[in-house]
Amino acid sequence: MSLRPDLRGTVDGLLPELKVLLEQLVAIPSIAFPDYPKENVQRAHDLVADELRKSGVEDLQVLRLPDTAPVIYGRIPAPEGAPTVLLYGHYDVQPSGDESLWNTPPFTATEKDGAIYGRGAADCKANVVAHIGALRAYGGKPPVGITIVIEGQEEYGSAFDDYPAEQPDLFQADALLICDAGNIRAGTPTLVTALRGVADVFVEVRTLAAPVHSGQFGGAAPDALLALMAGLATLHDAKGDVAVQGLRRDKWSGANYTDEEFAEITGMEPGMPLLGSGPIGERIWYGPAITIIGLDAPPVKTAASAVVPYARAYLNVRVHPEQDPAEGQQAVIDHLRKVKPFGIELTVTGGDVGSGFAAGTSGPAYAAMREAMAKAWGADVVDSAMGGSIPLTNAMAQANPGAEVLMLGAEDGKANIHGYNERVLVSELAATALAEAEFFQLFADRMRK
Description:
By secondary structure, the protein is of the alpha/beta class. It folds into 2 domains: 7-195 and 356-448, Zn peptidases (Aminopeptidase), CATH 3.40.630; 197-250 and 287-354, Alpha-Beta Plaits (2-Layer Sandwich). The chain is built from 12 helices and 20 strands. It is elongated, with a radius of gyration of 24 Å. The mean pLDDT is 95.
């Protein structure tokens, strides 16, 4: 069955205006972090809300939560007997970082070689634009009911992370399209079926009241930094696999990166080995990871010849999508408390946790989306996962225990989200809008049978 020519032709015809809208959104530095201008976040909100109204979302309102950017909430009633689809995205972005490291200005959308560069171009403004394109493909009257939720503080975190579970009536739908993901590689339509959970762990050690001369006392005086490093070194084995008992790891049967592809995507230095063993998908999606993301110790530039009395590390722990992150966090804490390098006890405490997610793949929405994406991209659909977490996914699922959760989007493995020179391919933007539009009809057809 070929793709309906009216939908493809309509989306192709909409593409110029969708590109203009994306360029307008990228030009707004809608960073919801503290100390950034809140008016920019409001400007992005207003632009998205106006464009949704033009796309047929007449019932549009704002959800205002404490210390949270305004959440766009809208509805299009379902035709008689048709299902309802919830569309999610966010209009806020990460900070740009050092702008001198960008090849183009981060808040000036720049089209080059089939891609649009700029902060938020992929994460997640392209997905917001794709929602708008899918609605406009039907003249604002899709064959399914629509609930649309576009938040403005996803990147920093907010009260909205838990809100859907507290107000489930607002978020009832038969399928949830969490469009804050993307394809494993450009041109390969990908449904994300799992997200790893996350937990923070802090490790510190104090051995002396103050630094002491390393020549006079080094060799016997207990070195806090050395003890910390020795303790942290026990978290992995000689291959680089996590060596903490109680952290789950399973076989991964979905799509995978090749070693060469992964090295290119991550910008590995030539000749640098990968950490761990087994398929890459198993290591980064279906198994644990422990990353040292912060270290309090004397900086090299100002270091004195002294035994260090105090050191601290900040660990980011990623756990299997179906493992309780608090359980994984406790496993790491217990491991480090037992280590006692050189007989020195480490002080280990837990921080924030966020649950992972595993989506069902046997329902009508999943089948309809696989068919829609295969038609839009003209390629077989694969399942993938994300090593990162989307906290809102769990709250949406809790609010809607009977709904299918579909995670997809216009990003791809080389989109550089959160990094310098972020970009979205125009072809991926168009295919995402087309797949979503096709899904509306296919899902409506399946649910009426």
